Amino acid sequence: MTSSKHTPVHTSRRNWGFFARWVGAFIGFPMGGLVAIALVGKIETSLDGLIGGLAAGAVIGAGHWIASRQTKLLDWSWIIAMSLGLGIGNAVSMALFGAATDATSITIRAVVTGGTLGILQWIALRRHFPQMIWWIVCMTVLYPIAWIITRFVIGESVNDGFIVFGAAGALVFQLITGLVLMELQRVFQRQIPNV
């Protein structure tokens, strides 16, 4: 007899529960941004990008880990991946392209940061999904989209030199990555049924 714990309906509810928690973790982006502002203020140099990115990434990554801890899909390495990805990505993009806040500059820097973040997140995910090299491409595309949305919503406030995109961009980012991770969770559950 099959336990009700593992019925398709229960699994579906659990997956949607994960999705709801993951989307709710969008709040980590503004919180991480506030921590970065407290540490370095306006992001103007590569060092600011490194320190602010490390701090913001740790806060965002911790929020992601908390949202997903019941799934066993992500572990503590996700926090490190977020922290290093945002720190290194922002530092490199600031060194290469400066701190300008026009749409083109923000988008180009976001491509670099998103790509760096994608590589490090892929390393964290590949334990369960070694074929997920496409995650790098996903982050390289999605991260700039979130910044474009933020720039559209907050307008000239982007001149304040934020380390991460705002709540509107974060919500879209979390919705899309949440759907992808929910599907990965389904795959993971088929591989290891007791998860």
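Next protein, fold it too.
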Amino acid sequence: MPRIGLLGCGNIAGIIAAHGGDYAAIDACYDIDTPRMQAFGDRVGARACDDIDALLRCDFPVLVEAASV
């Protein structure tokens, strides 16, 4: 199963987590809202990265931008 990284851990990431499990595993995530990022990472079993550079250093083939403005 492909592994992905998520940039953003809010509503869009929640939809991906709820409906994308048959297609990909969430390996790592990052969000500027640290408590939300930690909670999301714990919920989906993903590594919560300290900053965006740490997210980009993780070993996954696909990064999904799931942040909304």
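About the second fold: The first helix runs from residue 11 to 19.
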